[in-house]
Design brief:
With 275 residues, this protein is of the alpha/beta class. The protein folds into two domains: 206 residues, no CATH class; 52 residues, no CATH class. It is built from eleven helices and nine strands. The strands form two sheets. Strands 1-7-6-2-5-3-4 form a seven-stranded mixed sheet, with helices on both faces. It has a two-stranded antiparallel ribbon with strand order 8-9. Strand 8 and strand 9 form a beta hairpin. Helix 6 packs parallel to helix 7 and helix 9 packs across helix 10.
Length: 275
């Protein structure tokens, strides 16, 4: 943690970087709280390629904040230039690249890893917003081969539905829900450069995804109580769409019907037995 005197003595560029990182640290805390982290012991002490299941702007912020060492992001120029992300990428030393210069990005990532850094590559033209896997291209195999260092898969869970999300049209972030459970970040065991291939990487990432899902908060509680709580939090959202007449029922209406039915069953237990 930097003291005020340290901040005042910094060059202007360093002050701006520190300010940007504090800003995005606050954004991460406000949007997802403190994430649950698994597998930090799997991170090698040398350089390596970090392979996430997806990489939105918020994912990058979270990865940088939970990783004990700096992460060098190598991202498509269109992502780097997103207005609210550019300060973070600039402060973290990210390297922008043009989509037609993938070979240059591969060489840059391999060089950084050989120098002992952690490199994370996102060559997609647009950041992914779902929790599905990003496209795993052959350039990842080439980076691992050229760098001669391992690849570490990492799964980021519950970030795509967090309080802030990237909007393709506005290039901004939007507040949607402050009551979401904490995100989960799980680092897998390193894959050696000799064993690494796209098929194995996909398998390891899916295993991490299953692990994160099993560790989501609330899975141990009663399904009925979780359903009631969810309907309370989404009373004004559409919860059910009838496939026949396309009638739409909001969460609040479904909750009211459920409460009325439960009271009816309590008064007349035979209704439940006969059904």
């Amino acid at each position: 943690m930097f003291a005020v005197s340290d901040l005042l003595s910094m060059p202007i560029g360093k002050k701006r970087q520190r300010s940007d990182l504090r800003l995005f640290g606050g954004l991460r805390r406000a949007s997802i709280g403190k994430p649950k982290i698994f597998g930090l012991e799997n991170l090698p002490g040398t350089g390596f390629l970090l392979l996430p299941n997806n990489l939105t702007g918020l994912d990058a912020v979270v990865l940088q904040s939970v990783c004990p060492r700096p992460v060098r992001f190598i991202v498509n120029e269109s992502i780097y230039c997103i207005e609210w992300l550019e300060p973070f990428f600039r402060s973290s030393g990210a390297i922008p690249m043009q989509s037609v210069r993938t070979e240059e990005a591969v060489r840059e990532a391999a060089n950084r890893i050989r120098q002992g850094e952690i490199a994370c590559v996102c060559p997609e033209a647009e950041p992914e917003r779902s929790e599905t896997l990003i496209k795993l291209g052959k350039e990842l195999e080439l980076i691992a081969k050229l760098a001669d260092q391992p690849v570490v898969p990492v799964w980021l869970d519950r970030l795509s539905i967090s309080s802030f999300r990237v909007e393709r049209e506005k290039r901004s972030f939007k507040r949607s829900n402050w009551l979401l459970p904490p995100a989960i970040v799980a680092f897998g065991k390193p894959i050696s450069k000799d064993a690494f291939n796209i098929g194995l990487a996909r398998e390891r990432l899916l295993e991490l995804g299953e692990f994160c899902f099993e560790n989501r908060p609330g899975l141990e509680e009663h399904l009925g109580r979780a359903t009631i709580r969810g309907l309370r939090q989404t009373q004004f959202r559409e919860a059910v769409i009838d496939g026949i007449d396309h009638r739409r029922i909001k969460g609040g209406d479904l909750l009211a019907a459920s409460i009325a039915l439960s009271r009816r069953i309590k008064k007349h237990p035979g209704i439940a037995r006969s059904s």
